[in-house]
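question for whoever is on the cluster today: can someone run the full assembly for these? two chains, 463 residues total. i dont have access anymore since they changed the login thing
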Amino acid sequence: MLLGLLRPSSGMIELFGRDFIRDRFSVLGRMNFSSPYVDLPQRLTVRENLTVYAKLYGVKNITARIEQVVEEFKLDAFVDRRVRRLSSGQKTRVSLAKALINRPEFLLLDEPTASLDPDTSLWIRDFLLKYRKENEATILFASHDMHEVELLCDHVLLMKRGKLVEEGSPSALLSRYNRQNLEEVFLALNREND
Amino acid sequence: MIDVNQSGPFGRIFALLLRYLYLLRSSWPRIIEIAYWPTMQMVIWGFVSQHFSKASPELTAGGILISVVLIWDCLFRSHISYTLSFLEELWSRNLGNLFVSPLRPWELIISLASISMMRTIIGMLPAALLAIPFFNVSVFDMGMPLLGFFLNLVLTGWAISQFVTGILIRYGLGAESLTWVLPFLIAPFSCIYYPLSTLPNWMQSVAVFVPTTYVFEGMRALMLESELRMDLITQAFGLNLVYIIIGISVFVLSFQAARRHGLLLQSGE
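^ ran it for u. tokens below:
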């Protein structure tokens, strides 16, 4: 719904002070997303994909911006390789580079470190924290990795069978449930009424 | 700090065109294939035409048989080029990325139509040029009316494509076979190889609602009787306008239905 792909049956969504349901195109350029359920065109090279999306989002100085994300996400070794020839970890990095090509103020990420090795996952988490701070961006992050959620998020929404069951800061949730970590909170909630 | 701005419609249309051109460039068999089928059609029908010219000269007078085959193929090529470019987005699971970008549905339609036009010209031009030395038939001898016939068939192809892509958005790749089937549904009514009067009455009453019927009747009038029937070309344009509006409406309604049901991220089979 927050991407405009699903129309809500009721309620409203306000983004950047605009009614997102009625006027999503005025704000979509300030957002971006990455998800393992969506791929980039496999026959295009990484550079071609980034060029297409930079143009779609109206990025100025495209060549410079591409060089920047290539450097930031360490894509230089395979920037001219077709996406279909990349490993899943490399594809995830390219997908994140695409998601940041327009310097979004609102970034939606679905399992952004899925299929990445621990070292790269750590690097991505640090990068996202730095990006959020430097650009004053909002990141909405969906994950089943509670350790990652604890490290990255200021505010956590826990859902069960499509319904919101709990929310709050990681520390507030830990103290509310008297647990050591968010994974224990998650398990406690998940087993409740089962 | 790099300045980032919102894009305009031309920039987004160009971005998508670039995506399809990159795709085309990435595979030389695809480039060859665009011209391969029209050329094969022209060669086969060229020989059929030569064979018929001995027994029934009226069937092949003025190169009519090769000309109608080439012109009919413009419809098929424009439709296939449009729909295949859209199918590429489904096959590569890229539709979600496009629909969360600032790209409007009408910009997607214009991009697909533009790449379709490019691919149709790239595909048809070699076949039309080769027909001159091979069979001494030049469709270009029709002059300016050729443009009217060509544009009408391309428009009919796009109208079918908009309907098919609308169905694909709503029902996913399970409806892919419509891409190949639908253009042939109108072929018997289009009077490609025979005049309208050949059809039984009930088929004639359907054929008058098919824009391509007017194109081929117009071509026969021009090539066999040297008569330019602007009324037929105008009627074809009028009908195409109606079908394009219906096609776009089907696409837009399907897009809205897909948004209501959350199908835009699940566009597989």
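summary bc i know u wont read the tokens: The beta strands of chain A are 14-15, 18-19, 31-34, 106-110, 138-142, 156-160, 163-168. The interface with chain B takes residues 3-7, 25, 28-29, 31-33, 35, 37-45, 48, 51-53, 55-61, 64-65, 68, 82, 98, 102-103 of chain A (CB under 8 Å).
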